[in-house]
């Protein structure tokens, strides 16, 4: 049974179940990374055999395997994946940015170049889960950014990858795919091996080993984020349908026993009805056991005094997913400051965004929406600034720079300017 | 004496002196952070007394102290700081971004909101260095982003802060200033204490303790970067003036014994002349000892076969600062893919950008320009995406989402859509 609290009874920090999880895989991961760095493909083959039961001469998925996957998958599903990809593309196209240049002062040109990364690595989990949506969500922004080469890695149990994953990779535009999973895949992407090229950024979810490996290679390469358990906060008022709110909470709860689904409402009627609906719906789910643990241990219903207070609570919590299940949702949009992805109105369940609508589903968890953003085209570009001055332009400001440098006690900085002023036009 | 290599003789990884520095301050820093988290202001006062010799009842700089600083500093210097701030503002204004909305499909509204951080923390080092330029460079982008409150901390030896730092803070628009330095300042900003408010992002350079503290609080708050030693790569051809190239290299070398200054040229004439000029100029510098160590141990001259090859080398190295000391520098701009800040032509020494021109001087070091950017307005905003569908719009695509969810084995995801389809207009 889900727990109910009045807002005054509970501290903001206790509303979501956000524990600072400790994992003890750091040493094991460090060992795997060092092994891959030193022994390259030989180490990768050893791990593929040990963890995935796959004896692989060639680690890369062949063009034939990729073509065969397109034949093996239901064309109706392929069409749905293509429509989802088109929606994701349309949304992320709007995130593209352009260079700028400033030429307002005589003899001065300043600007900023937007440059795509050379190479991105997409990690896709294997095992029981099969998430083609993640392939689309992680690859398409990189593609739109103009990344030159996109490398995907995923574990291949017995040497086989789920064909739906390969189809999603094809649709999204992945350049090369490798049959490698776990920390060893992260190591291969970070350091490069004989067959796997080194990348500049690694994105994608994974188990504790993958997350720890991303943490350890961070700095050498860029990473997207270390995601915590998934979360949803639903703002619902007295007009809400309890069956629907409960269904939305369970779509979060079925992910993981650590996932949190929180309803904040000013309606005791809705609170009680959702509580009852959860009890009714949980046993009907294939993943009932997971959902039960999430609802009982990590989820809550919070009674606010007003919907205005409910929005304040949402901002304090900065949830990964925020559903505004209210009839006039745009009235609340300006007040929402901290949330990864916002679902507005009664006809936009989170699942719409997980798969289909277009905005990214790789989102900041654990309150990091205070300062982090959904995965976007920005994650796959970087900027360089540039400065050009003519001799005359430098002469006009040179003495000021010398004075500034002296104030900071850096005479050689000043000298690099004054030597130019002294030499004048003779450079 | 600086070392010279032909490009064929040296590996790319050895051109800059980029060691993976190990510091053994992790335990000491963890202890300080835990202390600040637990004991708040009491711990901060203890550290201020121990490290800065300052017995402070009030940790915050008062309005009177800030006003007095404006009186104490030379008006000419204040005018220079204001002119630099105006240039920095003009450049960073161009980085501002706007929300977007997509309304092309019937009944569908998608969009992205740009939201400034609530609060940013700027760390400013104290001690012998006094860097008002860093105050301007770190604060102004936050201000332009629209950050609601900007908190600065800096150590105050004997309770006093250099008035030039306070003046720079005034000009840049810092809201509150605290007399706290070291790992304890980072802890105060990350966790908040009775008098220091918790921030969402911490930026600014610092010693090994500050860097390690930023690493340890990363995730709880955002940080700018962990900067490595500063670096410059200069592309120069046979038309270059050796005295000027050497002066530019020394402006980098005087920073730190670990700083690197590398010249890549196709001219043996320039290589030899710069080598001789370095020997002539080093003894003339107040910071000769530091510059000598940097030039002899960490700096190099690389002889390329052509300037085209020289640009390739620059891209491989991805330097923090790149000077293109060539007459037609814009001819090279499109070829440059990886560099933090690019200085074009013979009249744009790095010092121009360090202080005055407008682009930021907080830049990616150690090759991270492959995937990282100069500090910018982007560092002080985050994005939220939003999704609105009408009932009719959801009905049109609902079945596809259910099918997709089932493919991923997440039936509750599908159910959150199908329950809406079943209920139709009754929500």
UniProtKB/TrEMBL annotation, chains A, B:
Q: Per the annotation, how and in what number is the cofactor bound?
A: Binds 1 zinc ion per subunit.
Q: Where does NAD(+) bind?
A: 123, 184, 207
Quote the EC number.
1.1.1.23
- Residues binding Zn(2+), per UniProt: 252, 255, 354, 413
Binding-site residues, substrate? 230, 252, 255, 321, 354, 408, 413
Q: Which GO terms describe its biological process?
A: L-histidine biosynthetic process
What is catalyzed by this enzyme?
Answer: L-histidinol + 2 NAD(+) + H2O = L-histidine + 2 NADH + 3 H(+)
Cofactor field:
Zn(2+)
Pathway named in the protein's UniProt entry: Amino-acid biosynthesis; L-histidine biosynthesis; L-histidine from 5-phospho-alpha-D-ribose 1-diphosphate: step 9/9
Q: What class of enzyme is it?
A: oxidoreductase
Lineage: superkingdom:
Bacteria
Pfam families recorded? Histidinol_dh (PF00815)
Its function, per the record, reads: Catalyzes the sequential NAD-dependent oxidations of L-histidinol to L-histidinaldehyde and then to L-histidine.
Instruction: Name the protein family.
Output: Belongs to the histidinol dehydrogenase family.
Protein name per its UniProtKB record: Histidinol dehydrogenase
What is the originating organism of this protein?
Answer: Anaerotignum lactatifermentans DSM 14214
């Amino acid at each position: 049974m889900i727990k109910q609290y009045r807002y005054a009874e509970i501290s903001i920090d206790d509303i979501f179940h956000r524990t600072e999880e400790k994992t003890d895989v750091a040493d094991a991961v460090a060992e795997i990374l060092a092994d891959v760095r030193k022994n390259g493909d030989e180490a990768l083959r050893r791990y593929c055999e040990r963890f995935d039961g796959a004896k692989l001469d060639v680690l890369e998925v062949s063009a034939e395997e990729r073509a065969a996957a397109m034949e093996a998958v239901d064309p109706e599903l392929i069409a749905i994946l293509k429509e989802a990809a088109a929606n994701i593309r349309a949304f992320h196209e709007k995130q593209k940015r352009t260079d700028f240049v400033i030429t307002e002062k005589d003899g001065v040109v300043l600007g900023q170049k937007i440059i795509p990364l050379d190479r991105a690595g997409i990690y896709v989990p294997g095992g029981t889960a099969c998430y083609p949506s993640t392939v689309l969500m992680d690859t398409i922004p990189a593609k739109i950014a103009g990344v030159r080469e996109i490398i995907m890695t995923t574990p291949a149990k017995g040497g086989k990858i789920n064909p739906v994953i390969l189809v999603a990779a094809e649709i999204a535009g992945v350049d090369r795919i490798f049959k490698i999973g776990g920390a060893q895949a992260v190591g291969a992407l970070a350091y490069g091996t004989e067959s796997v090229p080194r990348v500049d950024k690694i994105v994608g979810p994974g188990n504790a080993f993958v997350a720890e490996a991303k943490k350890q290679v961070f700095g050498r390469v860029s990473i997207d984020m270390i995601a915590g358990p998934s979360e949803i906060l639903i703002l619902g008022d007295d007009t809400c349908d309890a069956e629907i709110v409960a269904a939305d909470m369970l779509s979060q709860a079925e992910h993981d026993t650590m996932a949190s689904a929180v309803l904040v409402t000013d309606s005791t009627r809705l609170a009680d009805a959702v509580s009852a609906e959860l009890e009714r719906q949980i046993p009907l789910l294939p993943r009932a056991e997971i959902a039960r643990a999430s609802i009982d241990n990590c989820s809550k219903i919070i009674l606010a005094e007003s919907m205005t207070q409910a929005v304040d609570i949402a901002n304090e919590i900065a949830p990964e997913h925020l559903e505004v299940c209210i009839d006039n949702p745009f009235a609340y949009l300006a007040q929402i400051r901290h949330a990864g992805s916002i679902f507005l109105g009664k006809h936009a369940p989170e699942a719409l965004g997980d798969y289909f609508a277009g905005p990214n589903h790789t989102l900041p968890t654990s309150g990091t929406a205070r300062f982090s953003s959904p995965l976007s085209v920005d994650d796959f570009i970087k900027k360089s600034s540039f400065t050009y001055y003519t001799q005359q332009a430098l002469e006009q400001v040179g003495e000021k720079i010398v004075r500034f440098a002296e104030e900071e006690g850096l005479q050689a900085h000043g000298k690099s300017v004054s030597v130019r002023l002294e030499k004048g036009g003779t450079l």
